[in-house]
Amino acid sequence: MRRKIAAGNWKMNGTAAELIEIAALARAHPDPDCEILICPPATLLHRMSEAAHGTAIRMGGQDCHAAVSGAHTGDIAAAMLADAGASAVILGHSERRSDHGETDDRIRAKASTAFEAGLQAIICVGETETQRDAANTLDVISTQMAHAVPDASTGENTVIAYEPVWAIGTGRVPARDQIGEVHELIRTRLNNRFGAEIGRSVRILYGGSVKPSNAVEIFGVPNVDGALVGGASLRADDFSNIISALDGA
Ligand code: PGA
Fold first, then answer.
1. Catalytic center residues
2. Residue nearest to atom 9 of ligand 1 (CA)
3. How many Å apart are CA 7 and CA 19, to the nearest integer?
């Protein structure tokens, strides 16, 4: 059985005042069936890990550099995230791909560095609306899976997040069968490349406009092992309802 994951991606939001949301979330879910992960901006990691100490909430970064350390002004090394209390890192989010020109090869290099630092990599894949309209979705996802996922991936160190770019922050969500089709493809790619034992142990999250109102339906789709949640993770009550939907799935 794959343990489900409710992951919140705060993106470039949140100051110390928002740590109150962590306390509320921890109170609401003292002993969840699923894993709860919050990925705040790097500036909050340390204080959040103190706020979440002794709770079921674990922390992740939103990106790391591919190098272990060195002259990379403004960047963050995987080991620094771990040092600040993170146990995971989101890599290859579509906003990093578009804002910073990240390629699949770069994302794979970052994931390898994350593994070395003991972090779990949440590797994001997803098609744009143009690619979906051109019926290229499955090819795009296959290519991203082939190039962005390292050979050293296992069920412990790797999570895949399927995030259609057109569904992120738009309120638009793919139909159940569209989500199911891509998650099945990702599972097949993992099985073919890593063998069934590893392939079936990697968690595959859906991300893109997940809300309390659509969570139950999305979590009912085969091979959906949880969610990567942006906007709805910023408020403890919304994220809490999504966690409850996952615990009940
Ligand atoms: P959203 O973002 O839930 O606000 O659509 C999801 C994500 O980008 O991870």
1. 93, 163
2. 230
3. 16
